[in-house]
């Protein structure tokens, strides 16, 4: 069944979109990530204009994160205070990100920027996660408990604040900076940034793992919501029909994924996620490195 | 006075009438295309007759060319080149006006039914329909950018040249069907019919097909442009409601 998207102005198969939403939803339910980093490149591949894909994906992430955060609020695994600090940084970052996005769109380099961001971040995160989970599997096999570093340079910074739910007493500067970085990425890449924020919260801020996912989801709702508004008002690129189709598939997939996820071991899950991240990274890197079959592209006039 | 002028005009028209010995009488299967949510392209049947006062003139037979053009917009065509090991957009050429859709259908090979001078005057063939004046001085091969534009749009059926697609019978009746693809932008689609003999245009006729988004499509599109803030808030509200509903339904299943 073909469906005409009013903002993207292309006609696509509705079941394809539902299916994509479903598959990415299953993965995001399994791994506890938003799935934006998978969905946005997939949307590029089926011919949705990149600007529309990025803006619409931000809107879809609002839905999946909201669904997730409700479950976490019930289990009291959301550090609202930390979330708010991350959020302040995130809003600043999102505003900066949209400015950068619009500037590069006028220069005709936005596709390159988005793809480079993907390759760099997916490559680094995927690689780190892969090595880390391989080590974890080796350690559990040899029976040694994983060591945990406690104090690092972060504890020497000023403006300290107490985060009771996380059991932390640290400076607000690192969480603010993490927030800004994720906000910029959310605006440019059309992702929630969970795949960057979660490792940053665990390894950089030293937050306990059980509050990390809930807190990051809490922050992501607001940052992606804000990004959606900015894209809707400055670029007119949020396609609500596309978003609805993706999120219907996504929320159903997420429920199935969560059930699969509880049956698997944490290390196995992480190594699978790492491989998937690296696969997407590799595909995008090849696009940049190999000679494209069509050297030319058509875009809207910049109008000097 | 105005009455006198109109009278004079009518007289003039009557005088010039016999020079236009052959004229087009046109019919369209529809003059309005509605883009609905389930829009999947549309076929338009264009048919008509050649009206003439006297017998069919001697010489080469009459040929018919039909063009349908979507709204024109300025564009930027960019070219990639390898820089520091990766492929990036380097050169760009601005195209002043290019139709979003353009179809040319003829009753014979285009080069035979239309002389180059006539093509230049009436801007009939695909390359002629695109207007591109200045390329930046650092680009020497501006034509390759226009060629690329035609190649890219032809691949997605946005630019079509179909020779022998117009059927002419008895040098009087003609008909053809134009396929509008699914990825269509809205606007007035100018439809032109040219009658040619020996490569010379002897008569032309034009009309418009109105392509418009309707219903939900129209409403959403207008809301997103007219009230972007409200549209953005609505998008977020729908997303939150869907997220909430999903978790509520899930809870019901577990209970």
Search tags:
heterodimer; A: 304 residues; mainly alpha; two-stranded antiparallel ribbon; 5 strands; 6% strand; globular; B: 255 residues; alpha+beta; Immunoglobulin-like; 2 domains; six-stranded mixed sheet; four-stranded antiparallel sheet; 7 helices; 12 strands; 39% strand; flat
Spans of chain A of 5+ residues with little confidence (pLDDT < 50)?
Answer: none
Which strand-content bin applies to the residues of chain A?
Answer: 5-15%
For the report, how would you describe the main beta sheet of chain A?
A: 2 strands, antiparallel
Give the N-to-C terminal Cα separation of chain A. Answer: 41 Å
Average pLDDT confidence of chain B is 83
* The first-level CATH class name of the largest domain in chain B: Mainly Beta
- What distance lies between the first and last C-alpha atoms of chain B, to the nearest angstrom? 87 Å
Set down the secondary structure blueprint.
The complex is a heterodimer of chains A (304) and B (255).
Chain A: E1 2-4, E2 11-13, H1 14-31, H2 36-45, H3 50-74, H4 80-107, H5 110-142, E3 160-163, E4 168-171, H6 173-189, H7 194-204, H8 209-234, H9 240-262, H10 266-289, E5 296-300
Helix pairs in contact in A: 1-9, 2-3, 3-8, 3-9, 4-6, 4-8, 5-10, 6-7, 7-8
Chain B: H1 2-16, E1 22-28, E2 32-35, E3 42-52, E4 63-69, E5 72-83, E6 86-99, E7 102-106, H2 110-113, H3 116-122, H4 126-129, H5 142-155, E8 159-162, E9 167-169, E10 173-180, E11 187-197, E12 200-213, H6 215-226, H7 228-254
Parallel strand pairs in B: 2-12, 7-8
Antiparallel strand pairs in B: 1-3, 3-10, 4-7, 4-11, 5-6, 9-10, 11-12
């Amino acid at each position: 069944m073909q469906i005409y998207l009013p903002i993207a102005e292309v006609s696509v198969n509705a079941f394809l979109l539902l299916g994509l939403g479903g598959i990415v939803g299953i993965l995001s339910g399994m791994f506890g990530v938003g799935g934006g980093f998978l969905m946005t490149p997939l949307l590029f591949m089926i011919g949705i204009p990149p600007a529309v894909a990025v803006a619409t994906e931000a809107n879809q992430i609002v839905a999946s994160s909201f669904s997730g955060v409700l479950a976490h609020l019930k289990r009291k695994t959301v550090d609202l205070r930390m979330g708010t600090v991350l959020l302040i940084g995130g809003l600043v970052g999102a505003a900066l990100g949209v400015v950068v996005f619009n500037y590069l769109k006028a220069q005709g380099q936005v596709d390159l920027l988005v793809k480079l961001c993907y390759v760099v971040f997916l490559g680094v995160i995927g690689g780190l996660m892969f090595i880390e989970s391989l080590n974890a599997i080796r350690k559990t096999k040899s029976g040694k408990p994983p060591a945990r570093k406690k104090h690092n340079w972060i504890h020497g910074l000023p403006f300290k604040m107490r985060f009771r739910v996380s059991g932390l007493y640290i400076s607000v500067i690192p969480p603010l900076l993490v927030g800004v970085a994720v906000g910029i990425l959310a605006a440019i890449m059309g992702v929630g940034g969970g795949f960057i924020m979660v490792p940053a919260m665990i390894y950089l801020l030293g937050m306990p793992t059980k509050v990390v996912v809930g807190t990051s989801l809490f922050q992501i709702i607001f940052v992606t919501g804000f990004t959606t508004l900015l894209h809707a008002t400055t670029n007119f690129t949020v396609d609500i029909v596309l978003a609805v189709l993706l999120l219907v598939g996504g929320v159903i997939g997420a429920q199935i994924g969560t059930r699969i996820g509880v049956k698997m071991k944490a290390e196995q899950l992480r190594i699978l996620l790492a491989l998937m991240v690296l696969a997407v990274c590799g595909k995008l890197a090849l696009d940049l490195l190999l000679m494209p079959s069509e050297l030319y592209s058509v875009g809207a006039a910049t109008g000097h | 006075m105005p009455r006198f002028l109109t009278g004079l005009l009518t007289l003039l028209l009557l005088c010039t009438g016999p020079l236009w010995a052959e004229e087009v009488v046109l019919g369209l299967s529809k003059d309005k295309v509605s883009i609905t949510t389930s829009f999947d392209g549309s076929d338009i049947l264009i048919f008509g007759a050649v009206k003439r006062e006297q017998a069919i003139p001697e010489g080469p037979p009459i040929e018919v060319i039909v063009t349908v053009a979507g709204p024109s917009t300025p564009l930027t065509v960019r070219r990639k080149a390898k820089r520091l090991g990766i492929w990036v957009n380097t050169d760009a050429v601005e195209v002043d006006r290019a139709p979003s859709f353009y179809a040319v259908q003829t009753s014979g090979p285009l080069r035979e039914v239309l002389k180059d001078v006539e093509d230049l005057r009436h801007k009939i063939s695909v390359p002629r329909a695109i207007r591109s004046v200045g390329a930046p001085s650092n680009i020497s091969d501006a034509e390759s950018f226009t060629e690329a534009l035609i190649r890219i749009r032809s691949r997605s059926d946005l630019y079509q040249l179909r020779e022998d697609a117009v059927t002419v019978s008895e040098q009087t009746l003609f008909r053809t069907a134009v396929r509008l693809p699914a990825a269509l932008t809205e606007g007035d689609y100018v439809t032109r019919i040219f009658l040619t003999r020996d490569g010379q245009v002897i008569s032309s006729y034009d009309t418009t097909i109105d392509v418009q988004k309707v219903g939900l499509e129209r409403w959403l599109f207008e809301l997103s442009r007219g009230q972007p803030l409200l549209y953005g808030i609505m998008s977020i509200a729908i997303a939150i409601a869907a997220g909430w509903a999903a978790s509520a339904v899930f809870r019901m299943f577990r209970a």
